[in-house]
Prior knowledge:
- The protein is of the alpha/beta class.
- The protein has helices at residues 14-23, 45-62, 70-79, 94-99, 147-159, 181-192, 204-218, 220-225, 243-254, 275-296, 323-338, 357-372, 393-410, 417-420, 422-428, 438-443, 459-464, 470-483, 492-507; strands at residues 33-34, 64-66, 82-84, 87-89, 105-108, 117-120, 123-126, 134-137, 141-144, 197-198, 229-235, 240-241, 258-266, 302-311, 318-319, 343-345, 377-378, 384-385, 390-392.
- Residues 1-14 and 16-24 have low confidence and may be disordered.
- Pfam families: MTTB.
Amino acid sequence: MSETAAPRRARGGGGAARRAERTAVSIETARFIERNIPLYEPLSEEALEVIEANAETILQEVGVNFVNNPAALDRWREAGADIDGERVRIPKGLARKLCATAPSRITQHARNPARTVEIGGNSLVCAPVYGPPFVRDMDGGRRYATMDDFRKFVKLGYMSKWLHHSGGTVCEPTDVAVNKRHLDMLHAHMTLSDKPFMGSVTEPSRAQDSVDMCEILFGKDFVQENTVMTSLINVNSPMTFDDVMMGAMEVYAQNNQACILSPFIVGGAMAPVSVVGTLTQVLAEVLAGIAYSQLVKPGAPVIFGAFVTSIDMNSGAPTFGTPEASHILYGAGQLARRLNLPYRSGGGLCGSKLPDAQAAYETAHTHNAVLLGGVNFMLHSCGWLEGGLVSSFEKFVMDADQLGVLHHMARGVMHDENGQAMDAIREVGPGGHYLGCAHTQANFKDAFWRTEVLDYKPFETWEEDGARDTMTLANARMRRMLDTYQQPPLDEGIAEGLADYTARKKESMPDAFM
């Protein structure tokens, strides 16, 4: 799926047309990834059965808390759970039975139908970083994020070929009041990009604003009958569901919009230090949360989420790209597939303060685990820095470029007639070279993945060009992308409706920064 937005060619001869084509701005988005490779599944059948049995025991004997939410307690009581204050104990088998009504695959529609994505099965949808209050670039350093920063990230996401999704809170714009910033963020996603996006979850009324604005963008009937938003609902691990997150999920479930039900776990602090113990808690929390979404509305679209990282036992800081985190990612994927649910995990996670070698190593480990672990929706796939505290402009561009590697790896290895290349081997024979043979000429344009950021020049050329490192190259590409950005077209009436809704809602309430 791709779209080209380019200025009209100037009239003239073939040379002028070719020059115009070379300088035209191309806005292309690759289709979401569909794996043609096997997954890595390290847990045995015995281990999976132990985890599943222990998770059911936790739900029945330990229980989970639904705090400040009497309606949720009433729903659980009616479904057959044991209620003790705010503690909900769920009989064995009940949560799994309720989860069975959740769909196994979700179509999230974009306002540009060519960018609609499928979440589930063998697909992988890549979405950018989510949530950091700080941003960083080479010029301004580390600073609090603003709405201008947010809009720049949305533009970069729109222009990134290998990124399928515009995301949600790509950074937290601290120069806009807390109770109003979701309106500006949604407006940016809806108008500056035509890729799918995420709704607000910071308060139930903000989730309703997200639905209302989508009804302006897509039409009310379309929203009620189709999924046009994916939203992140975090569990307060261990085993606590708060009224804010659950309230937002209730709004989305009632309006047929997808939620990622995701424990947020730092192993050793919010879950056991062992892989199997953590996976047991993850499964118990996910079962309870997804079951509750189905109590709100059977058939509501939902995604099995797992955000798990380990902890540095010396400093207490979270660590990323570790073997233990990868084992949990792989194992959670196996559990999600046994429930026949879409799976969210991973991203370009790292603990580094700069887009340096540490960031690259840790990000690459997680990206590879995502591909091999069967993740269907990868949040934080580009731009994450400093343990999720910082959205980095340079790392956004670097990571988005590397997502192209995942696309090519997922294709697998072709062994058809063209892949066998026997004609080329016969044509060249002993002692020749393949540069000019017919097979090379027919395939050279797409035979190998090509970076838009990294430098492959000889040393002398690289030195003459300024001896730039990767971060410098990414900064230059980021600036080119923003300089050549072209806003995707939007119906004038819809644009006015979104602007009017945003303005009226912001004017209807005083600023609040809590």
